[in-house]
Amino acid sequence: MVETNESVADQVIAALQTVVDPELGIDLVNLGLIYGVEMTTNGLVTVKMTLTTMGCPITDVLQQMINSAVLKVPAVEQVKIDLVWEPAWTPHRMSRFAKIALGYHG
């Protein structure tokens, strides 16, 4: 069976939902840190993401966790992380689940 890029993208998003920010205890997707996922036909997945702060002390740890999780998707051969600062992350990007879990009422 040939998988479409859309189904692989869905699998990548599901894999990213297993990557939990160790400081906040919420996954990166629900935190609103994942801005997009693109895949080429040769198995390269680019994860466009941001962080809550520019000086995040666990950037390297998160990148390793992302790499590990996304490489478990069968069609993925390589992972590239595109760390961006525009648009800036705000708590409004979090899912309802994350807001409730973190007690955010803003």
TrEMBL record:
- According to the UniProt entry, where is the signal peptide? none
UniProt superkingdom: Bacteria
InterPro entries reported for this sequence: Fe-S_Maturation_MIP18 (IPR052339), FSCA_dom_sf (IPR034904), MIP18-like (IPR002744)
Matches recorded under Pfam families: FeS_assembly_P
All copies of the MIP18 family-like domain together span: 10-80
Instruction: Write down the PANTHER family for this protein, in alphabetical order.
Output: FE-S PROTEIN MATURATION AUXILIARY FACTOR YITW (PTHR42831)
The protein here is known as FeS assembly SUF system protein
